[in-house]
Every structure is written in C-alpha cells, then in structure tokens.
Amino acid sequence: MKYNPVTHAIVEKLKEICGENYVFTDPEKLEPYSHDETPAEQFSHLPEVVVMPIKTEQISQIMKLANKNKIPVTPRGAGSGLSGGAIPVCGGIIVSLEKMNKILEIDTQNMMVTLEPGVITNEVNEKIEELGLFFAGYPMSVETCFIGGNLAENAGGGRAVKYGVTDRYIMGIEVVLPDGEIITLGGKRVKDVTGYNLKQLFIGSEGTLGIITRVIIKLLPLPSAKVDLLVLFKDIKQAISLVPKIMTETRIIPTSIEFMDQLSVQSSCEYLNEHLPYQDAGAMLLIEVDGNSQKEVEREAEIIGELCLKHNALEVYVADNYTTQERVWAVRRNIAEAFKVVSPQQSLEDIVVPISVIAEVVEEIQAIAKKYDILIPCYGHAGDGNLHATLVKNPDHSYQKWLEIEHGVLMDLYRLVKAKGGTISGEHGIGSKRKDYLSMVCSETEIKVMKKIKEAIDPNNIMNPGKIFK
Amino acid sequence: MKIIVPIKQVPETSRVKINEETGTIIRDGVENIINPLDLYAIESAIQLRENNGGSITVISMGPPKAETALREAIAMGADQAILITGREFAGSDTWSTAYALSALIENIKPYDLVITGERATDGDTGQVGPGIASFLNLPLSTYTGKIETVNKDHIIVQRLIEEGYERLQLPLPALLTVVKEIAYPRLPTLRGKQKARTIDIPINSGKDIKVKEEELGLKGSPTRVVRIYRPQVTRKGTILQVKDEKTLAESVDKLISFLKEKKIVSF
Question: Which of A11, A23, A102 is nearest to A56 (CA)?
C-alpha cells in the first residue's frame, strides 16, 4: 500500500480542525512520539505530524481527512506500550489523546465512571477511592498509562488472577472509525446480547480498527483489607512449582501471584536503591490477598504463608500496610525499567501458558538462554501463567549478532509456548514487534478472518497500519 | 546488650490530605504506621543484637491503637514492647513526651543503649530523642550514620554533620538518634507476625511510671501549637533567554558564574 505524504496543505487543514497550537511538525517535537517502551533503535519511526485533539468531533474530521487523502493515522496514549502499537511505522499522522483527559462522570448509582481516553489509569482510582470504589485494571505502568491505551491493548497486569483483565470492566465505548463515522457500543447495561459484540472487537484491537474516544468502566467496591506476602525461595523451580498449588491446595484465589527471579529482583533493587535479601534467594513470589475483613485476609495470608514454608520457602515477609506494600510492589513494578538501564538492547517478552505447565516452561527457557549464550531473566504474573521472559543482549555480542540471536531465541521460545498450549502475548499485544511471528500461533484461516474484519472496517488501511499482520 | 527503641505511630503521610482551613491533617481513613524513620532505629537495634546478643524493647507513647505499631516492630524482630497510654498524656509536646518516655525507660533499667529515629514525619521536630537523653543524663549522638564498634562499656559511632562525619566514642548507657544511611530496614516476617499477634504488651498509665501528673499532657507542655499554616514558597527561578549565538554565549557565562558563586562548581 502506497500512502500519501502529509503536505503543507494537510497540516493547514489539521490546524483548522484542532487549532494552531495543537498541531506540530518540528522534528524535535515529533521525536517523543516516535517510540514507545520497545527499544527505539529497533522499532522507532517518526510521524510526519502530531495532532492533539480535544474532542471526538475533531478526531472524526481528522479521520475523514486522512481517509480521503490516504494518510496513515496512529492513535497514541501515554506511549507506555510494549509492542510498538503507538509507533507510526508508516509515518503519517499521530493522534495523541493526551489532551482528552477528563473524568466526565462518576455514576455511583450504577458504580460506573465515564472517561476520556487520555485519563491516567491510576487517577481514576485516586479520584474514586474516597467513595469506596475502585477500577480493577492494574497494568504495571498504572502511574503513567492512559485508559484508552489499556483498552486498545486490553491490558492485563498484576491483579488478573482474581479480577481478570481490562475488558471485564468495559461497559461501553465511543469509537471514531477510519472513515470518520462515530459509533457508540455498549453502555451502562450489565447484560447485552444485541447483535455481534462489536465492543469486544475494538478492545484489544491495538488501534487498528478505530480510535476510542470515550469509555464507560465498571467499578467494584474497594476491598478494605489486603495483605502481601513476599516469599523467598532457593531456586526458580521451587518458587514456580508452588504457583498452581497456592490455588489448588488452599482454595484461595489471591489477587496476584507475581514471580521474580534473582536477576530481576537484584536489578530492580539496585535501580531503586532498595535492599531486599535476594543474595541467597534464586526467586521470589509476591502474593496478595484482599477482602473486606482484616482478620479474614490475615487468615488467608497465613494459610498461604504456611503452605510456602511447608514447601521450603526460605522466608515469608508480610506487608500489611500501605508503606510496606508499596515498598515490595515498587520492586516488582520497576523491573522492566531497571533492565533498560542495564541494557537498552533487550526484548521484553510476554508469553502466556496454562499455569499447570509454568514450571517446565521456565526451566526450558533457561535451556534456551544457555544455548544462545544470553541471559533471559524471568518475572511476571505467574498466577496467570503470563511471564515476562526478557532477552538481554550479551555485551560480548555485536549488535548484528544480537539481532540474529534475538530472532533465533524468539523462534525457539514461541515454538515452546505453542507446544505447551500457550501463546506469544498475554497482555502486551502483537503490534509491530511480534507481527512476523503471529502465524506461529494463529492458523491461516484465523488470520484470514481477522484480515477480512480489518478490510471491512478500514478498506484503505490507514488506521494504524503495519501492526498485527505482516 | 539491652536496647530500648522508642517509636511513634504516625499517619501514613504520603497520601495524606490537609484541611486547608485549619492546616491540620485529615485523619479519617488514614492508615497509621510506624514513623518511617523509626524503622532505621529498629533495624539498627536488631543488627546490634544479631552481632552482640541481648534483647530489644520497643516503647511508645500514644493512643491505645499505637499498639499496632509496637506489634509491627515485634514482627520485624524486637523482643518485647511496652505502651504508655492514657488521657493524662493527651496533647503532650516534645518536652512532655520526652519526660514521660524517659520515666518509662528509667522504670525498666538497666539498659545499655537507647536508639531513636532522627525525627517523626508528622511533628518533624527531632527533639524527643535528645530530650530523653537530657532527662536521663545520657551521652548523646544525634544524626548517627554508622555504628563502628560496641563493647560492654562504650560505643563508637559516626554522626553526620554538614561537612562530613564526626567520630564519637560514648560511654554506655547512651542514646543515639539515627539517620537513614545507618541500615536498610527489614520487612516483618510471617513468623514474626505470628509472634506479634499473641505477645502480651504491658500497658502503662501515668500512675505506673514515676511522673508528676502536672507535667503531663497539654497542661504539662511548655510549648503550644498556636497556628499551623503552609509556608509560602518565595523561591523564584531565573530564566536565561537564548535568541541567537550571542545570547547563548552570554547565558552560558551567566550560568557558570552563578554556579561558581554558589560554589557548585569550581574551575
């Protein structure tokens, strides 16, 4: 597909739509919009123009303009994505949703809030905390990411064991289609089987089908009590093999079961200047239980803690107040950032497997690491079977060699997860980063159906092109 | 070696909201925690006990719910805890608090060392530690950053001062107030929590410690909180405008001479 460049005339029209101050083309201002959290050297691409609309109608006009002139449009939230979803790989227009950041309505009767897509996810929870409500989505970038991006990627995160992922809480959306038409899907209805579930189609569509401009999310009563356990194990195998047992043996569903190997903990601790006793611990689990009775939550935490000690945990630490909980969670949340400091050349993976096989998968990943002579530290949402194995470049290897190795490791890794009943992305998405590997886990027919849907909604292929499909 | 660690329960201030009219903290729904800087005192005590044997008693003066803070300290590794609580203590300032705590410490002697945090994150005065030392006539090292050696009759420490460190040798018993760099506080353990849940924490009132009733609480406090307000920040930044090559060079020169003036760079 050949696209048309963004001409001076197009820029002028965009300025007419959005106002002079909300459109820019100076290269230094474009640069921050050329990458997300994937390594820039490998995946970045400059847009030709960035526009910052403040209302849906403007986005509709932008899309009409772009569709008519065959100019690619890439919607962008906070740019905290991990698969290149917000990168304008074909150039064209970036529609940044950063100015559409209002909480439009807090509806306590229905326990729902209506948001613009540029609201920072954590802000929602800060705003509604005093009402005793919360939004259960909890991506690790919760302090920076936008709700619109959470939807576009169907973000998962640290509470999915108990609360599921973003889509469970999305009641309604407003979307601007590639031709500029505006549609609303769903609403404040708990049940709805009127026709195809188009709302679901847009959630996790990685910005390839339209731009989400308004969101209604469901809230839950905020649990009044939670306890975190930080459990140290001698090695990875002991830690990870306990993960399914936590649920099968205690019959307690924790909010989170997070896994971190030694290198992950060490890197994050050094990055944060935190001191957890990781020296003798090959791996750690971070387990959270929540509920509405402090006593009951403590009892559940104790049962899980005892199970861990029975299975050779070296130590079980308990965090039952905000300060201590923040301390342990900060270590988990900052691992990805920390690795970037260690080596900017890396590949943060997002594999997901049935939790019953997670221990064998982790073991085989270490064998792959050995074969290619690189480090593959592992951490992630073990309770969901979702692991962020991170391929880190060996400093002795050249960049060219690293690219070869990266491809080889990914082929081996993806073959492994496919064989174990897993897939290549649990929550980060395919984007531009993994599109070459989609056919390893999706059948030809499956991909054909997806492409037909894409063609039906975006016949000119201007909506975030270069993503998901080769 | 017997170590006493006075601690304070404070509101969790990282998320705290302020009543703009009265200038006071809105305490509804705010979690209460061990004063974060006291964690360093507890950790230092635990490390001393690990290396030299002995026992650690944590003490606190506060409302009955301050018991939670003491139990948390037990969960981290302290051996026992004592709480002083009662209406007679309400409204105590730093002088009166130090007076009551020192009376309790006097009550449970002998001891070798008293360790406190540098200050509490709510009152922010840093006076109670030195106040206790004064009442008990103990040698004092404030802002202690490192404990070098300790034996049965003295301790050698380094205390942080503006230009570096001061090395002190103090005869025991002594009092140290410690700063963050002294140690990394450990997390409470499950076994510690289990112990903390069941341990008996003696509760002392004004009658149990030898104190003069009239020196306690608001009436015994020589200082008063008259008004709390937010200080206005008057600092203003200077912006050096760069329009062309010439103003660029001028701006850089101005910046360098400013940094030199402030002794931030010297060349």
Answer: A102
